[in-house]
Write a sequence for this structure.
């Protein structure tokens, strides 16, 4: 849809935080061999439902090193709730919910109170915006006292700045000066509202969770100095004016989901970072072009146009301006697209970008359970249409006594190929493997990793319907991934794992590795095809019903009892309208991995997505994030002060992302 130009309006390709680009590479879609395609299509004609039901009834055939005797199924003892379009959070009978840590909550330094007129510097001591992936790190093993660590994916500038009042700004818009420059303090505030929050929270004697002022409390932002490690560190790819030796950069951006390492550190993913960069060069090389940076003088929030021209803002223009790479920021985008390791227990630690986990639009990362003496294995999805699912296998074995992040610096990155017959293979992205040779344009390991997407194209991986979060079943070792949607997939591009053309609703795939998580072969099936009652399938091959319909699975977590928690992100551009109206506001459901039963557990307020979920170790307190409430307020309504959501404060308040605290009235286990 075309809008009239207005302050801060940018190209929609930069503005959409969820799905900014598609894989335009020419490697073949899986199964895209003419004869195979023709025979399979004739098989599918008129019988898609039967085919899908068959694929979904596939039992995972490999015996697994992790599969014990028949694993116990979890209980889903709550009463499913209906869909909702109300500006509130609903949970089942017998549950309590309240919001804490809204954007702007003071946590460190001079503890500046939340206010629209708070400064950019204040924001560096306050909870950021757009809460996303999250983990609870207990202190001394406590279920009532720990560090809540969460990502702040992006921002809505109109809800950050007092100067935005009265302007016709949509959810991507921002105030700017007549000449197109930006106010420095606004840019600082926006950078500081990104990143990660580390905040100590504790339940008092009444069970109420409170923020605790604590030495661990910390904001990591779009400006925090960070080290790069692994094969790309110290190479020419990362040389900038700020870091002539290519080992350092500033900040992390668009942190979507997260991961927790076996040595208890936190990894923040860098997802849609590419949109933040301008680049006026006529020729854009693949290290940027394959990630969506094209010739343009605009970035998502025009930070490179900060009025002062300060170095930390100018760097978001990646144009060649100096005589060499150490005199400009032509390589700055190459310092983004990584997984960032943060040690929440050491507030003085420098975050580290781990380059061997690959460079793409990392949604998040999920580690397989670590086994003493075995490699460390981590899975990560690249969330864009037709992108891939990856896994990293460490070279060195896990040893609990000495394990640390250096395990992520040596190993092998693989990309997944899903075969139509329910088998799959991991293709190594390493020098000399799968066509990754200098003749094919891959000079060495650093070149492969900085160009991860191009390497996966070359290897012939399966183009997926926007891989989002992953989770590992603690009993069986099965790995689940959400595939949120892909409305651009055409009929000729469908395959067994991405079976629907114009896929509006998404699906969840799962697989079992052949031997161990470090192996190179797996068996897969589809856990659920999401959708309405006319276009969905559960594990038993039946359509979803009133208690279970959902669309666009995104957040995913499997709790210690094996409940599969599914969170939805129907885009704010379509939610509560057309084919999506039946789903209401974004929601969270729980599923039984054995039977495939799914029940709706929570519905969120207006305009938001539900993302990020963790419980305390006793499973009696659950934390869930609500991101971008009110985002469906259109520009004219914003100008008139007519917001569609005032959550969580109510009244006439500006809507703010916040964290839900969910408990049971009887003190029981959440979801049981
Ligand atoms: Fe940030 Fe892919 O959701
Ligand atoms: Ca999303
Ligand atoms: Ca997400």
């Amino acid at each position: 849809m075309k809008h009239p130009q207005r302050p801060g309006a940018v190209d929609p390709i930069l503005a959409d935080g969820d799905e900014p680009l598609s894989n335009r590479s020419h490697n073949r879609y899986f199964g895209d061999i003419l004869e195979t395609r023709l025979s399979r299509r004739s098989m599918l004609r008129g019988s898609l439902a039967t085919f899908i039901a068959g694929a979904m009834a596939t039992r995972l055939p490999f015996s697994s090193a992790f599969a014990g005797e028949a694993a116990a199924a979890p209980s889903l003892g709550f009463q499913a709730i209906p869909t909702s379009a109300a500006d509130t959070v609903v949970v089942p009978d017998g549950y309590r919910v309240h919001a804490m840590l809204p954007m702007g909550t003071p946590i460190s330094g001079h503890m500046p109170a939340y206010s629209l007129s708070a400064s950019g510097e204040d924001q560096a001591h306050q909870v950021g915006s757009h809460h996303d992936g999250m983990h609870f790190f207990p202190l001394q093993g406590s279920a009532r006292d720990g560090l809540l660590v969460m990502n702040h994916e992006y921002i809505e500038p109109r809800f950050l700045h007092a100067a935005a009042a009265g302007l016709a700004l949509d959810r991507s818009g921002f105030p700017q000066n007549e000449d197109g420059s930006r106010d420095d303090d606004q840019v600082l505030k926006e950078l500081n509202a990104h990143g990660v929050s580390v905040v100590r929270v504790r339940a008092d004697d009444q069970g109420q969770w409170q923020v605790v002022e604590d030495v661990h409390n910390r904001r990591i932002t779009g400006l925090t100095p960070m080290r790069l490690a692994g094969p790309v560190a110290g190479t020419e790819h990362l040389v900038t004016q700020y870091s002539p030796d290519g080992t350092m950069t500033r900040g992390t951006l668009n942190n979507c989901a997260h991961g927790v390492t076996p040595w208890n550190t936190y990894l923040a993913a860098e997802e849609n970072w590419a949109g933040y960069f301008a680049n006026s060069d006529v020729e854009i090389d693949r290290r940027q072009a394959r990630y969506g940076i094209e010739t343009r003088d605009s970035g998502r929030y025009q930070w490179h146009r900060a009025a002062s021209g300060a170095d930390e803002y100018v760097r978001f223009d990646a144009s060649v301006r100096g005589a060499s790479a150490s005199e400009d920021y032509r390589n700055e985008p190459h310092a983004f697209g990584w997984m960032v390791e943060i040690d929440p227990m050491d507030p003085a630690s420098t975050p580290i970008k781990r380059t061997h986990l690959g460079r793409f639009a990392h949604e998040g990362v999920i580690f397989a359970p670590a086994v003493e003496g075995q490699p460390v294995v981590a899975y990560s999805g690249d969330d864009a249409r037709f992108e891939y699912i990856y896994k990293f296998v460490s070279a060195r074995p896990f040893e609990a006594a000495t394990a640390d992040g250096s395990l992520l610096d040596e190993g092998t990155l693989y990309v997944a190929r899903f075969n139509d017959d329910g088998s799959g293979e991991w293709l190594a992205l390493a020098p000399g493997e799968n066509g990754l040779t200098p003749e094919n344009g891959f000079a060495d390991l650093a070149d492969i990793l900085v160009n991860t997407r191009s390497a996966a194209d070359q290897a012939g991986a399966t183009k997926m319907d926007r891989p989002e979060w992953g989770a590992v079943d603690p009993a069986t070792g099965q790995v689940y991934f959400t595939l949120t949607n892909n409305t651009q997939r055409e009929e000729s591009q469908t395959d067994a794992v991405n079976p629907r053309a114009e896929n509006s609703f998404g699906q969840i795939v799962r697989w079992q590795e052949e031997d161990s998580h470090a192996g190179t072969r797996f068996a897969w099936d589809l856990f659920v095809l999401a959708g309405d009652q006319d276009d969905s399938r559960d594990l038993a091959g039946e359509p979803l019903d009133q208690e279970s319909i959902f669309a666009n699975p995104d957040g995913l977590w499997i709790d210690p009892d094996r409940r599969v928690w599914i969170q939805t992100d129907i885009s704010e551009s379509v939610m509560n309208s057309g084919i999506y109206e039946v789903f209401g506001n974004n929601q969270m459901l729980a599923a039984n991995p054995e039977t495939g039963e799914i029940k709706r557990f929570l519905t969120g307020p207006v305009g938001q997505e539900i993302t990020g979920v963790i419980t305390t170790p006793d499973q009696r307190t659950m934390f869930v994030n609500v991101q971008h409430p009110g985002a469906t307020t259109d520009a004219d309504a914003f100008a008139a002060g007519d917001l569609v959501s005032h959550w969580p404060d109510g009244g006439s308040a500006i809507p703010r992302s916040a964290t839900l605290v969910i408990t049971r009235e009887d003190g029981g286990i959440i979801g049981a």
